[in-house]
Amino acid sequence: MRSEVPVETRDMLGAQDTRDARDARETHKITETRDLRDIGSGYAERFGFSMPERAIVQTGKGLSEETVRSISAAKGEPEWMLRFRLRALRLFQTLPMPTWGADLSKLEFDAMTYYSKPTERAQSSWEALPDDIKRTYERLGVPEAERKFLAGVGAQYDSEMVYHNIREDLKKKGILFTDVETAVREHPDLVKRFFGTVVPPDDNKFAALNSAVWSGGSFVYVPPNVRVDIPLQAYFRVNSQAFGQFERTLIIADEGSFVHYIEGCTAPVFTSDSLHSAVVEIIALPRARIRYSTVQNWSSNMYNLVTKRAFAWDHAIMEWVDGNIGSKVTMKYPAIFLMGEGARGEVLTIAFAGKGQEQDTGAKILHFAPNTSSVITSKSISKDGGTASYRGLVKVEAGLSGIKSKVECDALILDPRSRSNTYPTMDIRSEGAVMEHEAKVSKISEEQLFYLMSRGLTEKEAAVMIVNGFIDPLVKELPMEYAVELNRLIELEMEGSVG
Questions:
Q1: Which of 100, 233, 256, 356 has the smallest CB count inside 10 Å?
Q2: Rounded to an integer, what distance in angstroms lies between the CA atom of residue 95 and that of residue 204?
């Protein structure tokens, strides 16, 4: 197996060459701090509540070398990880802020808390968790989900995983599913081999920030030829004001294996802004298949700025299913680097931009080997003056044959105040590559509403039905319980959009 990116590439979050690629030729109540009607009362009831802040270890506001050393000391990390963090901090201090895409000028790094540890250690027994944390996740439906249809669950509360569990039969197959801190201690060879190789700290400013202060996140390893037929899930909850959550997820599917990982995220509504800046690194070794599904439902005071990337080696399959609802600003572009011959990549993404929200999302797939194929399907919805932008990249290196790629981006605009932007980029350096691209923008027409209303639906019910039909390609790719939840979230966001 090769371990370096063989060509130059550019990451859209930071708009700069990745150095590794280039060197290788590359307070106990529902918090209502503003009018919750702006986001729908259903969000506040299900997701927008907050519990009293709890922390047994917490850094002060602002970021410094002392902050980084304190985080590392609190985790009892080896020296190599502390060196990794300190190098990343220096990069963060020198790398520029993105000047394209969403406006990040009001993001105040010095006003945030970067680490808050809510419990002494992660538990494998739900009953061992503190009552307020249990109540939080019970309101979000996580224990019920685990009992019904999950092979394993991880739950992160602010900076740390507070709960991790996996079925015993999967443990016996050699599957590892734990928090990254435990993996650093108990599986250092695996972590050192892959950590920071897919998304190096110098990739962009927010990757550097995550690398300096990362905390929590999931570590998954699936042995050769082992299938995890029931999904693993991690749920990330921000409970504190003016807080930064920086989980780091590392998933490795060994040769011929399969795993489906699902991620969910929420936060309460506060007056001060918070930051979610995750890094996800995925390695699909030859003939492996990985599906990574995300349903993020952030509150409207959250900056959601993440870097997610996968390497797919010979005949491997990588699939992203990515749903983005809420947040003040989202910049997210799941990426697949097709590194080995015969690899396939698919990204299916949806973004819903409401009042005061900017969703700058999309995908990128880079073909580095012959006989590789890719599909990008993007859906966006904007209403109440929200802005939804698709930003995509398909790149094909020189000298490759048998390349196929298809990009489809559709936008639905629900009112005259809302916007939809499309920024597709295709960098094709091989002759004979088969490329398809189509894009369309539409709105809910009076004829559609009239037709459905003539069948007995109200105007609101008709509009929701049209929107649900629009997002159906994503919904049908989710497990049933998650599809139902996504439809419910869309219905909440649609409140007041017509009439």
A1: 100
A2: 7
Domain boundary among 305, 332, 359: 332
Q: Tell me if 467 is assigned to some domain.
A: yes
| Residue 424 within a domain | no
CA dihedral angle for residue 173, residue 183, residue 264, residue 50, rounded to 10 degrees:
130
Confidence (pLDDT) at 463? 83
Is residue 204 domain-resident?
yes
- Check pLDDT > 90 for residue 171: no
Contact 336, 366 (CB under 8 A): yes
Domain interval for residue 482: 444-499
177: helix, strand or coil = strand
The pLDDT assigned to 193 comes to: 96
Average pLDDT over residues 233-257: 81
Adjacent-strand bridge partners of 395: 366, 427
Looking at the structure, tell me whether residues 457 and 322 fall in a common domain: no
Give me the phi and psi of 160, to 5 degrees please: -130, 150
Calculate what percentage of the chain has a pLDDT beyond 90: 46
What is the spatial distance between Cα 233 and Cα 254, in angstroms, rounded to a whole number?
A: 19
Identity at 481, one-letter amino acid code: E
Q: How many whole angstroms separate alpha carbon 116 and alpha carbon 26?
A: 37
Q: Assess contact for 406 and 439: CB atoms under 8 A.
A: no
Domain count for the chain: 2
In this predicted model, what pLDDT tens digit does every residue of 459-497 receive, in sequence order? 888 888 888 788 787 677 766 556 666 666 666 666 654
Closest CA relative to residue 293, chosen from 156, 82, 483, 98: 483
Alpha carbon distance 197, 317 (integer Å): 19
Whether 490 maps to a domain, the answer reads: yes
Question: Which of 301, 332, 363 is the C-terminal boundary of a domain?
Answer: 332
